[in-house]
Amino acid sequence: MTEFHFTLHATDGAARTGRIDTPRGEIRTPAFMPVGTAATVKAMLPESVRETGADILLGNTYHLMLRPGAERVARLGGLHRFMNWDRPILTDSGGFQVMSLAELRKLDEDGVTFRSHIDGSKHRLSPETSMEIQRLLGSDIVMAFDECPALPADRERIASSMRLSMRWAARSRAAFGDRPGHALFGIQQGGLERDLRAESAEALREIGFEGYAIGGLAVGEGQEAMFGCLDYAPGMLPEDKPRYLMGVGKPDDIVGAVKRGVDMMDCVLPSRSGRTGQAWTRRGQVNIKNARHADDPRPLDEHCTCPACRSYSRAYLHHVFRAGEMISGMLLTWHNLHYFQEIMAGMRAAISEGRFAAWEADFHATRAEGDIEPL
Ligand SMILES: [Zn+2]
């Protein structure tokens, strides 16, 4: 049986490329993980998600524990079989979404009690229950249970929250147990405070994980502050383990994060934007709602090989969005996921060949041109 293993192939500045081997297949890094919140990447068949180039999906523990329930998923053969995706799945711990979505949260040293945003039912999550739920789901990469304060928060609040998360990280490690082929990732916290990030990294190293996430960013601090933190935070984590930046981001966030040493990312942006008529292209954002597209026979991006660009015009994409047809979300989501994976593939090749800086300059120059002129 293949063990969970990370191999670093090349570095270019702080940027890295490599491969994570798992029993369910390899994950090429840097990797972008589409988000399959409720056991589906919305508007996409799993085989279509795979066709865009995704090696791994993310599932949300909070949503799945409430509906359809982790025990039910386990009885039905686990999340992979349930949603028909046989490649790696990473699940978050539920902690972040309890804080952002649940009602009547009550946090104590042991865990958090909350009410479901769906039906008001009462639930409890702790490091131990989060590990159990993620085991029932059959997740390949399990995230330690943590608490993430929204920024801005004062230093004292960030420090005490980070230290609680480190105690929970140790309890997550103990509860995870010995599961060959599966990985547990610890999550660095500490807000934008460099010394707290260092303290957190040290605590995580001491516990020991198969991978390390950078948590507590992309929570409203802005790109400049995030990049400022990423200038040092990844370098505090073990070099020989994957580094995962949670919840990022827009194309230029992703490129900036990889430049600073991040190996994995996830975001709802490409799928969510696809359902609201927003396309991300090499030349920036396109709002397909705009009247300028109504008579435009050209594709979204003439260089893109996705089905939306290969076979449909801007005029058609505009029409189906305005008509509220489901194919609108399907085609734009496909295009967006395809484009995000193309960015990842481009960066992997550039890092391997030691030309990341040139690739990045070209990425920004093409975006700066803006969308093609209206007809
Ligand atoms: Zn396309």
UniProtKB/TrEMBL annotation:
Start and end residues of each stretch annotated as RNA binding: 247-253
Sequence positions that bind Zn(2+): 304, 306, 309, 335
This protein's pathway: tRNA modification; tRNA-queuosine biosynthesis
Binding site for substrate: 92-96, 146, 189, 216
Signal peptide span: none
Keyword Metal-binding carried by entry: yes
InterPro entries in UniProt: ArchSynthase1/Queuine_TRR (IPR050076), TGT (IPR004803), TGT-like_sf (IPR036511), tRNA_ribo_trans-like (IPR002616)
Alphabetical keyword list: Glycosyltransferase, Metal-binding, Queuosine biosynthesis, Transferase, tRNA processing, Zinc
Functional description taken from the UniProt entry: Catalyzes the base-exchange of a guanine (G) residue with the queuine precursor 7-aminomethyl-7-deazaguanine (PreQ1) at position 34 (anticodon wobble position) in tRNAs with GU(N) anticodons (tRNA-Asp, -Asn, -His and -Tyr). Catalysis occurs through a double-displacement mechanism. The nucleophile active site attacks the C1' of nucleotide 34 to detach the guanine base from the RNA, forming a covalent enzyme-RNA intermediate. The proton acceptor active site deprotonates the incoming PreQ1, allowing a nucleophilic attack on the C1' of the ribose to form the product.
TM regions (residue ranges): none
GO cellular component, one term: cytosol
Ranges for domain tRNA-guanine(15) transglycosylase-like: 14-367
Active site per the UniProt annotation: 92, 266
PANTHER family in UniProt: QUEUINE TRNA-RIBOSYLTRANSFERASE
Protein name per UniProt: Queuine tRNA-ribosyltransferase
